[in-house]
Each structure stands twice: as structure tokens, then as C-alpha cells.
Design brief:
Blueprint (H helix, E strand, L loop, with lengths): L10 H8 L6 E5 L3 E2 L39 H4 L2 H9 L2 E4 L6 E6 L2 H10 L4 E4 L4 E6 L5 E5 L2 E4 L5 E2 L9 E2 L2 H4 L30 H16 L5 H16 L7 H13 L4 H15 L2
Parallel strand pairs: 6-10
Antiparallel strand pairs: 1-2, 1-3, 3-9, 4-6, 4-8, 5-6, 7-8
Length: 284
Amino acid sequence: MTQPTMIRGEHLPVALSLAPFGVPVLPLRAGKVPFGNCPACTGNACGGRPNMKTPGPCTCPAPCHGWAAATTDPQVINAPAWARAWREAAAVAYHPGAAGLTVVDLDNAQAIEWARANLPATRTVRTTRGEHWLYRGAMPSANAVRPGVDVKSLMSYTRWLGPGTGPLTDLPDAVRALVVRQPAPVRPTAVTVPAPAGSGRCPHRTPTYLERGIAMAEQRITDASGGVHATVFGAFLAVLSTHGRCGCLTSAHTARLFAAAQAKGETARHCADAWANALTRLGL
């Protein structure tokens, strides 16, 4: 698509000219930051989550929710409630993910050199210090995926700096892979489970019983599709309630459970805290 070029000082006309192309826009203040929450929504009082990643049911007329305020509706863009924001705006921003785009923000010459060697060529937009590489397709956003490289798409915004040059390329797997969260290296925390006085013998009939319990807890964590924090704590609690008083648990067992939790995105700190909380709950 052919898009208009930014004209300094004419932010509202540029925003209105982008909307018909399906590019949701919003005004930015100096410093490349969105306009602050309106009084009714200060501190995300309307139900939004921190960092405005999940805005609440806001019906405010002003652009008070960052990327979520971006719109293609010309009546909203040109509404009186937005007039002050456009008068004070230092730039036009847009929500690339909602436009079906992903922007690889290359912040310096080294980042550009890396992209040329590792990513397919696509439409390029010059920035103050580097380049934006635009791809057709949306994906999660993430900052600092590499030195000098950010990925901006869904739930993010970036400045409109002109249409750029070159044809758009479909979003490649090489870019998607940049934001794939790798499991943290497992650093097992040795936990000594004290046996009650006078209890030196494991009451379980065979080691297979313990092995099956650990395996079931690992599978429970691995199969979690949501509420991972609660699932991890519940699995730890189940293991300790059955095997925590006989002294048969070893650091190898806890390492397996911690590894399963970390593979689901939990931190080593959370694993240790969940284990300690389970011990406390059971009075161990």
C-alpha cells in the first residue's frame, strides 16, 4: 500500500490520512511516550493492568491507554477530546500488530548489520539512529531481544516515520524465534525435609510409589494450560503431603519438579518460594 509521508508539525492530518489504510494511530508526547491516563483512569482505575498491556473497559474520549488507544476511526481521531493531544503531540505513533505488521526496530549500525546477515529483506524505514524493518504479519512484542533490537507488533506502539522503501515480506520464523522464551537453566535448590522424631523408616512399600508420585506431579505441571503459579504450588503440596514426612525426598526429586516448573516459564525464585510455602502449609 502507498502511505503518506510524515510532515513535521502536521500530526493530525497525517494520522487522518493513515486511518483509511487500516493503520491505528495515536499521538505521542515528547520523549516518544503516549499521553497520560485521564483523571478517571489514573493508575488504571478502570481495570487495566500494569504497563497498559491489558486495558480495562475504558470509555474515556481521550487517548489515555497507550497502544490500546490507537484507532482507525476518523471521528475519534478528529474528536474534540483528542484536540489538545494533537496540538501538543510531538509525533504520530501506530499500533503495528493491529495493522497486521511487525516492526523489527534496529537501533544502531551493529544491529542493522546483524539483520542484513540473518533476516530476509523487507520494507525499510529510516530512523534517527537506525532502521525499522517491517514484515507482513503480527506476533507478540518484546524489547531487547538482541543488543540494539526490539520487536514491536501486538500490544505495542512505534512512531510513524514514513512509508519506507521496498516490498513487504511475510513475517519469517527467524523473527518469531527472537521472542520465544527459552526455559531458564535449572539450578536445583536442595531442600531437606526433616523426618519426625523416631521415624527413620520410609512407610511406602516400594520406591516405585515415590517415583510414580514425582512423575505425576511433573506431568501435572507440564500439562498446565493456565494458572501455572497455582498448578506448581498444588503439585508441590501434593508431593510433600504424601512424601514429605518420611525423609525419602532428595535434591534430585526437587530438581525434577523445579525443572518442570521452569520449563513452563516459572523462575527459580518462584519455585523455591512455592516449595517453602508448601512446607509451611503442611507444618514441615
